[in-house]
Design brief:
Layout (H helix, E strand, L loop, with lengths): L1 E8 L6 H17 L4 E3 L21 H9 L7 H13 L2 E10 L2 E9 L5 E6 L21 E4 L2 E7 L6 H9 L4 E5 L17 H15 L2 E7 L3 H8 L15 E3 L16 E7 L2 H9 L9 H8 L15 H7 L4
Parallel strand pairs: 1-2, 1-9, 2-3, 7-8, 8-9
Antiparallel strand pairs: 1-11, 3-4, 4-5, 6-7, 9-10
Helix pairs in contact: 1-3
């Protein structure tokens, strides 16, 4: 059995040093509870720039600049401090952070070992909608996993977790423990038109990732505090952003939730004991990268067959025309 934890907490918003101090404190707390993997949410350090969804781009630029100036580098002192904390706590850490690489900022994840070494970094492949005004894109090679003593660990950020091709790629690599990094779900809370951004919808996505992949999923996310609302909204009243939004959980490879909900306003660790033998039980029924996988079907569709094989010859199908650039 291995003890794992998904963090639900509020960063010190747009403050790298303040969030670093809190990160180290949470790692230390995990170490005291014999946690072997602790996972943080999307750009936990220095916090998610919610303002980009609430204000026109040039109005939100002050927050974008603050986010940039509080981004960290993989080889910088903040990352080294987190590595040192991981070693002291004897735990692996999956960190969501804003990464600076020369003049660009990326939504990144780093896996740090219990020996205090950065063993994997990756960047969000395609930032979502307004996020593209802040972050660059990651390379195609950033679908990856790391083998540890307690299992094969990987991670994706936010809506990377709903992309079928991303999921299948991770499953193909034999991922056993997945970290789904999310921001706070305090944005547009209760707004029907934005249900896809809700805690309910995205928690289901984490759960379905576990069920579909036959793997454990640590769904970590952040909290918006009352104190940060004024800065997030830039003083504009009536915007659909609210304090809270926490929804951390751990799911088993059969989709079952292994942790109790934490109050959405409260910092905490969603902790579960996991056993890789549960994956064996799930894979008896369905292995999406093995006996339940049909790569020939994907090839069939991509080669132009939109329906039954006898329905249309390849040159007449919409899919093939689109690939060839003939379709509108």
């Amino acid at each position: 059995m291995t003890k794992v934890a998904a963090v639900q907490a509020a960063p010190v918003w747009m403050d790298a040093q303040g969030t670093l101090d809190k990160t180290i404190a949470l790692i230390e707390e995990a170490g005291k509870q014999d946690v072997k993997l602790i996972a943080f949410g999307e750009v936990w350090l220095p916090g998610y720039p919610f303002t980009i969804w609430l204000q026109p781009p040039m109005v939100a630029m002050d927050i974008v600049m603050k986010h940039r100036m509080n981004a960290i580098t993989v080889d910088g002192p903040e990352m080294q401090a987190i590595c040192d904390a991981a070693k002291r706590a004897d735990t692996y850490v999956m960190l969501g952070f804003a990464e600076r690489d020369r003049g660009s900022i990326f939504c990144s994840q780093a896996l740090i070992s219990d020996q205090g070494e950065v063993v994997m970094t990756r960047r969000k492949l395609r930032p979502t909608h307004m996020e593209r005004t802040v972050w660059g894109e990651g390379p195609v090679t950033d679908i990856k996993i790391v083998e540890t003593d307690f299992g094969k660990v990987g991670g994706l950020c936010c809506w990377e977790n709903i992309q079928p091709i991303n999921r299948q790629g991770m499953y193909q690599l034999g991922e056993q423990i997945h970290v789904a990094c999310w921001p706070s779900f305090g944005m547009f809370k209760g707004v029907r038109q934005a249900y896809s951004l809700s805690a309910e919808a995205n928690t289901v996505e984490s759960q379905s990732y576990a069920l579909q992949g036959g793997c454990f999923v640590l769904a970590a996310n952040s909290i918006i505090t009352e104190e940060s609302l004024e800065e997030i909204t830039m003083g504009t009243e009536g915007l659909p952003v609210f304090a809270g939004g926490g929804s951390a959980a751990v799911f088993g490879p059969d989709g079952y939730r292994l942790t109790d909900p934490i109050d959405e306003h409260t910092d905490g660790l969603a902790i579960a004991d996991i056993d890789l033998m549960m994956i064996e039980g799930a894979k008896v029924f369905a292995d999406p990268a093995g006996h339940y996988y049909r790569p020939d079907v994907a090839r069939h569709v991509l080669e132009g067959y939109a329906g039954p094989a006898s329905a249309n010859p390849p040159e007449e199908t919409p899919v093939l025309k689109a690939i060839d650039g003939d379709a509108a």
